[in-house]
Structures are given as structure tokens and as C-alpha cells.
Amino acid sequence: MNPELVQHTEEGGYFRIFITPPGGRRKDITFFRDLPTKIGSFSSTDPFGDATASVLVPGVTTFDKPGQGDLDWLIAWSNLDIRYYHSDGSTDPWSWEGLLINDGEPGADGTVLTAKGALYQADNYQAAPWFPQYPIPYELLIKMALDPSSRPSLRTAPLKIEFPADWNTKVPEFQIDPALWFLRPYGVKTGDKWTGLTTRNTGGWEPVLTGFVQTLLSVMYTEESQWTIYKKTGRIPVLKVRPTLSAPNDDTYEVYNGTPGTEITLNRDFTQSANVVYAQGTDLAGSSYSGQVVSTDGQRTHYEPFAALPYVHPAEATNPLLNRHMVRKETRLQLPPGMDMSDAADTAAAHLRRFADPGYTGSITLSADPLVGTQPRSRYLIHAGEQIVVRNWRGSDLLLHITETTASPEEGTITLTVDSKFRDALTVAEVRARTRDALDPVRLLQVGKYSTTVQDLILPWSYSEGSGVIPSGGDHDATEFFTKRLGAKSRFPWTDFTTKYPPRKFPKYYIRATAHSSNADKNWANLSSDGIARGFPIRMSQSGQIRLIQIAAYDIDGNVVPCRFHLSIYNNSGVTSRDMPRIPNLEVPGRKNYLQGQAYPFFAGAFERLNPDGTETTDPLRTLHDSAGLVIGWGNYYEEAGYWPGRYSTGGNKTGMLTDESVWAFDTTMDPDFDKYSVENTRNATTTGRLYGMIYVDYHGGNAVYFMGRCWRQESVG
């Protein structure tokens, strides 16, 4: 390749353009079909580095078919790399790296290739919540979100975390009761460097990079700056603290105001300034504050600012520094929950320091190269996240942070978006408030209001010990199946393993319903020899919320039986079929053999206390017994269970499966063995923390049916 024919910079360097199709080899398209490829533009942002790029390939026309022949590289999602070379042919560390988002846009002058930056490929994924029981440090969540081993098509290296050399925030020794293991942060050990920020919020179906990761970065403050993500050459994302400079360093770009090739547009917008700062918040003791001051007669209320310049406040004659010609500009901070009032004052003071003078924002367009030290440096190599100093701007030198760059080599320019203030920095006081795990117990200042945000401190939820398994905690218990037998990749209804561990050989894993009987009382599962079906135990925890339940009916060999059924869950250990709704008359459609008084969940009005006209029913047979303690149930006259993923009411087919993602709550503390005054007594009791299930199934053939399932808890986030 002849360097004289490629796009050059003023200092003699030049660009080369490479394409790597998925699964293919890298190809140099700096020249294609003997015509030079032209770079239209490329841009970068802080955070996330390389953002967009476009290049024109004159040798590709509307008659060419992308992906074929010598255009085998012209495929969407091919890697696009722009590298910079010095005049002597040596490689510069600078690069622009991304992916094509189309297979070109042909036009009269050739075909334009459009690409987005390498890290932005993460937005191809959605941040689906995954409900960990442990609080997870922010930096590890970001690393997981950008992990190419768990997102195989992601063409970036694993995230590197770079702590500043003087970073002294380390994981403390957590003095936590072993039973409260779920309060211990995941993935770190005592003495490790960490940000100190933890959460259980793992996403909410937003784009991974510009949604989930950006949200985490937005609150990752240090005392003087903020964490950000840069991209190093090699598609390497790096999480590090954004440098905050008070003076230019050896890497700062330098331009002179008024010199040819430099267009500067900067603005000080005083509507964005503030010299009086009010605040409102609530501390960790539950006390609210706003600076409220009430007159002695109670007739007037005013508010004291948390920070103010003495030239505008107090606006009284007794203030010797008051300048009545200075315009007062007020603002109010809504502080994050948990910040003490004294820390709020520090935060307000920091806000005042940053906004009393609005600083400069704007743009710089360069058509000539800036200096780094005493040597010129190609303007195209300026990246977002770097700094530039403007000499002789309004009588002084102005240091600016570069937040975005857009280079246009074809036009010979680069435009920088700049800011003289690090406006997203907050004080360490706010960081301390945000580092508190949302599941930590909270002690309130007002007496009689101590509470815990953890719902099951006395008797915690434990998947490993069978919480949520249906059935569990009794003679029939599927805990072993789910914790030791079931493969990690098995999916509901788990037939790849239920057929290996079927009811025929492992009856203890399942709840049995006998073959269909003409007596509805005998179609309830867990039937005893006395003809009464009793509620089977389901191990849970002290209390909480369930976000997902899945249960299926199986034959004796572990295959799913397509049948309709009813499932209901109770907090009364003594619940039986005798507590269930009973047929009020002999008119049961399709069930002519069932008699009045038999327990049956599918007649019109079963379980309901209200009539269609809004009046309460007077029929005692129609409702549950008052002591049953219903928590939740599925399957009635209007909507039978066992049709998932379809519905009975819309003519769906029976499947014998139920899945429900509706969130529902439970509380087992009404159990007489649950000792609210003694953790030890409660954990030593064998029946605490349980709910009890009732299943009804009929018209499924002449054989017994077996049920097994599982609940998953809604984890708190914060």
C-alpha cells in the first residue's frame, strides 16, 4: 500500500481501515478495487468511548451483492477498525473500533458503511432481572453485564477495573450472623478494594449499556469525581475514576484563542447557576428535614438555606457582606434517602461551589492540530474523556473536560463538546448514604417504630434447604430433586429429569392424587385412609413475596399428564378437604355423579363470598371454612388451572401445567410454634415457616396423577 494515497493528517500520519466479518479474517479496505476508502466521520463519548463512524467505499456500487465474492466482508455486524499510523509506518495507540450496523448504503459516489462503537454492542442485549439473594457491588454487576463469556456474541474483552493508586476504600469485616448470610456482599472478601456501592437491582429490561450500566454509573461518585467506562484499543472496556484536573498535565491538549483553525463557542448560562441552596431529605433514623423555621406565634414559616453566598444571604441589613446589586438565584436539592442533615449541609456547600459560577460549556471546532506540550498532535486523535486548555480566553487560560468528539477527516475538522465543570461529582456524604444495603435493618429515631426491611430475619428463605419446593417439609419432599438431581439447564416442566426420577421409583418427590373417583371428596391429592385429604407442607420462610410459581401433573413414569386441576395454598396446618367449598346443589354441569355437599372447586361461585350483584353470599357451602387461612389459589369455575401457556376460558388445550408470575405475599408467623421472641426456638421447631397446599384433579383417566413444583421468591432490591 502506498501511504501517499491514503488520508493524511497535518503531522504526516495516516489512517488504515480494516473489516473483519463474523467468523472470517480481517481485511484491509483502505483501498478497495484500487480506489481509496474515505472516512466520513467518527465520534467518541465519555463514558463508553467510540460511538459512531461512517466510511465511504467508492468501489462498491448498487450492482454489487453484499457478502459475495470480494465483498464477503460486507456483512452487518462485521468489525470495523480504524487505526492510525505515523509517517514512518509505526502504529499509534489510538484506534476507533466498532461494528457495522448494516451492509452499506449504496449511492452515486459509492457505498457508505455505518458503524457503532464496540461497547455499544452491549445494547443488543436487554438487562433482564435475575433476583440474587446477595447484595452485589456495582463494579461486579457492570463486569457481569459486559462479560463476553455469558454473552457469547459480544466482541469485547472482559471489563478491567482500575482503582486509583491512592484508593483506600476496602471491604470491611462483616460481623453477620451466619443465618443472615444473604446480607453479605457477593464476590468480594475482606480487604479487597471496592467502590462500597451494593445493590440487588440487576436490571429492569432496559438496554444493557446505555440503560442498566449507565444507571449504575450515574450514582458511582467519589469524593471529587465519578466512575466512568473508557475503551482501550483491543475492545477493552475499563472501569476507572474520571480524572479531575485543576491544572493542565502532560497529556492535556492546548489551543490558543484567536489562532487560525480554531473556532470556539463557549457560554456561561447563569440560569444554570445557584447562589442559595435549599434542601430536603430524610436521614437513616427516619427524621425529615428541610430547614423549616416557624415564628414564635406560629403564624409564619420560612426556610433556612443549607448553603448560600454571603453576598446574597441573609438579605438583611445586619449582613455586612450583603450586595443588593447581586442577583439572588435559588435552587433546592432533593437529597437521597438516608443522608444526615449535617452531611446534607456539606452536599449543599459542594453544590454551591460548583454552581455559584455556572462555568463554561460549548464546543471547539479545530481545523488545525493542537499542541501536547510543545509538539503538535493530530486533532483526529482527541478522544472524549481527555482535557484541553484554551489559552487567552477572556483574559485567562480555561481548562475544559472533553465529553464528546466528532471528527470529519473528509472535511478536515473535529468538533469537541466541552465543559469546565465536573457537574456530576457529589460529596462522600452522599456516597456513604448510597452504600447502605437496602436490606440492612433500619432503626428509627421515633420510639415504637423499629422495623426491619428484611422480611424473614428470624427464619430466612433458603433455596438449598428447600424453601419454595412443592412438596417439602414433610413425608413427601422434593428438595433433593431440585437441589441435587435437577440439572442446571433443565427447564419447566423438567421432564428430562422427572422421567429419570419418576414417581414409580421416587414417590417421596411427589404429591399423589388417586385415580378419578365419582366422589369429588376423593379427588383431592394427599388423601388419607380415612377419606380426608390433608394439606401437604411447603417449606417457605418467615414471610416474603413470591414472584414465580410453577407446578405440573405427572404420570407414574414422570411424563406430564394433560389435565385440569385446582391448587390453593394456606397458612393453616390443619386445612383439609372438609374446609373446601362444597357443592350447593345437584346441578354440576358435566359432573352428574357428584353430590351436594362434596368438596369441589369448579362450581360457579366456589371460593367467592360475593354474589355477581355485589351482595354477600349466605350459602355456607360455597365458601372456604373461616379457619382455612387461604393465601392464594388457582383454578375455579371461570378459569381452570392446567392450561398453561393457554387459558381454559379462551378454549385452550389442557396441558397439566401452571406457571404464574403474579407477585403474592405470605406470612407464616401465625403458626403457634413460631416464637417471635426467640430466634433459636423458632429455628429449632420442625414445623415453622410452612404453608400448606391443596390440589384437586379429576377426569384425567384411570390412573393416579402426581404433582411437583416450585416457588421463587421476590428478592428485595436496593
Strand content: 25-35%
Helix content: under 10%
* Coarse shape: globular
Largest sheet: 16 strands, mixed
Number of strands: 39
CA gyration radius, whole angstroms: 34 Å
Mean pLDDT: 86
What is the helix tally?
Answer: 7
Alpha-carbon distance between the termini?
56 Å
Decide which structural class fits the backbone: mainly beta
The domain tally reads 5
Given as residue ranges, the uncertain stretches (5+ residues, pLDDT < 50) are 1-5, 423-444
Top keywords for this entry?
single chain; 718 residues; mainly beta; Pnp Oxidase, Chain A; Archaeosine Trna-guanine Transglycosylase, Chain: A, domain 4; 16-stranded mixed β-sheet; 6-stranded antiparallel β-sheet; 7 helices
Structural notes for this entry:
- With 718 residues, the chain is mainly beta.
- 8% of the residues lie in helices and 28% in strands.
- The chain folds into five domains: 3-122, Pnp Oxidase, Chain A (Roll); 125-241, no CATH class; 253-268 and 359-419, Archaeosine Trna-guanine Transglycosylase, Chain: A, domain 4 (Roll); 271-355, no CATH class; 463-713, no CATH class.
- The protein contains seven helices and 39 strands.
- The strands form eight sheets. It has a 16-stranded mixed β-sheet that branches. Strands 30, 31, 33, 36, 37 and 39 form a six-stranded antiparallel β-sheet that branches. Strands 18, 19, 22 and 23 form a four-stranded mixed β-sheet that branches.
- Helix 1 runs antiparallel to helix 2.
- The protein is globular and about 100 Å long.
- 36% of the residues are buried.
